[in-house]
Amino acid sequence: MTADPVTSNAAAPGAEYAETASAAYRAALQVIESVEPRIAAATRKELADQRDSLKLIASENYASPAVLLTMGTWLSDKYAEGTIGHRFYAGCQNVDTVETIAAEHARELFGAPYAYVQPHSGIDANLVAFWAILATRVEAPELAEAGLKHVNDLSEADWEKLRNKLGNQRLLGMSLDAGGHLTHGFRPNISGKMFHQRSYGTDPDTGFLDYGAVAAAAREFKPLIIVAGYSAYPRRVNFAKMREIADEVGATLMVDMAHFAGLVAGKVFTGDEDPVPHAHVTTTTTHKSLRGPRGGMVLAQPEYSDAVDKGCPMVLGGPLSHVMAAKAVALAEARQPAFQTYAQRVADNAQALANGFLKRDAGLVTGGTDNHIVLLDVTSFGLTGRQAESALLDAGIVTNRNSVPADPNGAWYTSGIRLGTPALTTRGFGADDFDRVAELIVDVLANTQPSAAAGGVSKAKYTLADGTAERVHAASAELLDANPLYPGLTL
Ligand SMILES: *Cc1c(COP(=O)(O)O)cnc(C)c1O
Hints:
- The chain is an alpha/beta fold.
- It is 45% helix and 14% strand.
- The strands form five sheets. It has a seven-stranded mixed β-sheet with strand order 4-10-9-8-7-5-6, sandwiched between helices. A four-stranded antiparallel β-sheet has the order 11-12-15-14, with helices on one face. Strands 1-13 form a two-stranded parallel ribbon.
- Helix 10 (261-265) links the parallel strand 8 (252-256) and strand 9 (281-285).
- Helix 3 (65-71) runs antiparallel to helix 13, helix 4 packs parallel to helix 13 and helix 14 (337-358) runs parallel beside helix 18 (431-446).
- The chain is globular, with a radius of gyration of 23 Å.
- It starts with 17 loop residues before the first helix and ends in a 9-residue tail after the last helix.
- Mean pLDDT is 91; it is low at 1-11.
- Bound molecules: pyridoxal-5'-phosphate.
């Protein structure tokens, strides 16, 4: 055991206290086994599978054993609806402590005036933010005029009155096929139903966000909310510019940094690229590049904090106290200098991965990356995203298919493969390893042929040349063995 067991090796969380963690997991699995052995078996197998696969899913990571262990306690047993010091249940003193520490770490880490750590997921965080913005913006002067005080005090009839009075419930967000998220106004999502939505895309020639086009759409549409942020856009965003656009049309700027919160926390995105000082409200997940437990958070400027603080009961039920505790531990880890080293490596590795593709003549959306995402256009291999995703999985490489802007193959088959560096960087992968990963992916895709189908070629079926899967499996096993996941952890 060392003085700094949590973070002294950011590339391999937990190496220093592997023995203690191993004992804890062995004990836990033994207890689980006594009740439902199949769950213990699936849990063991998940570790083996994660250790043995090249995980390039851009939204995934590996949390430290400290974060994981924090979730497995009796904090889960407590109901604590309400806010710190103001709960609807008795006996919440320890949950108050946990939530206070988590919120304090979040404020300090991101330099935010206010942090709400209760949301159970990224989508919950966005719903809380939407309602908080509505509550805040609707409060004055329409409410006063209608003789009402606060959105949270409205009766059903008042709501009706308000909806009729309220002209503007318009939301402008990035379109799904340009890399936005379902919750940014995609029609089948509730965000596309709560709001009158319109989306902005990227420049058809360069694939980059076109701020002039966003500004023009904002002037014409006059949204109440502009949402910035993305799940599949491989470039940085200038949030100062987005705020200027929002200010010009009187919109609230909400930034959803679910994907890149780790790059903000690790000070890779600073100045105009740091959303927190520019956005009125910033939402995030905690389990992606931030490397915490599965969950969400909302950060807000003071004028929005009272409304965000009412996320429960407005949107949420009881907070997951054990997960708030794990958020506190993960945020404490992210405040260590080692996390900044990790975040910089995530970005550097994405460069190495992109360069690995470019020098092998594979097409990339926007021609490269400057964040943690690489969006490979697989039409250069004559494949759909669906075929590429499946062929890569046959060779032990886990990715997800993704639309590219104006995708000719639609949202189901797609033409892209989204790749991210956060997870393998946690294992310790460096630039040379990511160049090798690009080589292996190109090897698989170059050896994949679409199958013949009635009237042309199939968008789903494919054949992989003999020996490819075996060759790539063997090569990736070498990379994985050299960069073990949870080194020293034995079950
Ligand atoms: C992943 C993601 C979410 C949703 O997070 P969940 O925890 O899965 O609900 C929301 N917004 C963006 C931009 C995301 O990338």
